[in-house]
């Protein structure tokens, strides 16, 4: 069942997002946060996949209608992201998702830029009870891991030049140092964005399938 675009309040304004619901009508909530390309079809497809697995999934439009289809444009949107506005958008999205969710807490998952924003969302909204970070990066987003409201699963790539395995291990160590639960998995011989099946250069089906299985299992355990 395909989802639909919705609007929700965001600090006095409005933000739009893509909402996918399961056939049951309501499932545990999962916030799905975009890569640097914007709210593109791939991210909507991920929401639909969550809905097919029984979750209610919401992808907020962090770029407010803008998308990119080549790296230069994506990089400009990525660096122009207003972190204060992003925090408000994420807060509004989590609050809205909570009203659509069958679970008291919701999960947050993000890819690339969205992975870092998922960690950030997990530190600024107590309704986020679990975070899955796919190779997250954003130089201006600095989550306070001590404020995480639940465990973190990090999924990274051995050949990633943006988030190298040592960077991934440093994030894992920092979360544990802050007294929170974290586990990471670094997939061998794959690159950044290995989960994105529309990115033919990076997509790796075996790693993507395993990461999806881990993500579903993690959310089923921690978001109920």
Characterise this structure.
The chain has a single domain (4-222), classed as Alpha/Beta hydrolase fold, catalytic domain (Rossmann fold, 3-Layer(aba) Sandwich). The protein is 37% helix and 22% strand. It contains 6 helices and 8 strands; from the N terminus they run E-E-E-H-E-H-H-E-H-E-E-H-E-H. An 8-stranded mixed β-sheet has the order 1-2-4-3-5-6-7-8, with helices on both faces. Helix 4 links the parallel strand 5 (106-111) and strand 6. Helix 3 (83-100) packs across helix 4 (113-124). It is globular, with a radius of gyration of 16 Å. The two termini are 22 Å apart.
Strand and helix layout:
Blueprint: E1 4-10, E2 13-20, E3 29-33, H1 41-52, E4 56-60, H2 71-80, H3 83-100, E5 106-111, H4 113-124, E6 128-134, E7 152-157, H5 165-177, E8 182-187, H6 205-222
Helix pairs in contact: 3-4
What does the largest sheet look like?
Answer: 8 strands, mixed
Helix count equals 6
How much strand? 15-25%
Overall 3D shape: globular
Estimate nothing, just give the exact number of structural domains. Answer: 1
Head-to-tail CA distance between termini: 22 Å
Poorly predicted ranges (pLDDT <50, ≥5 residues)?
Answer: none
The amount of helix comes to 25-40%
CATH uppermost class:
Alpha Beta
CATH topology: Rossmann fold
Could you give the count of β-strands? 8
Query: In angstroms, what is the radius of gyration?
Result: 16 Å
> Averaged pLDDT, please?
96
Spatial order of the strands in the main sheet?
1-2-4-3-5-6-7-8
CATH architecture: 3-Layer(aba) Sandwich
Q: Which secondary-structure class do the elements indicate?
A: alpha/beta
Strand-and-helix sequence, N→C? EEEHEHHEHEEHEH
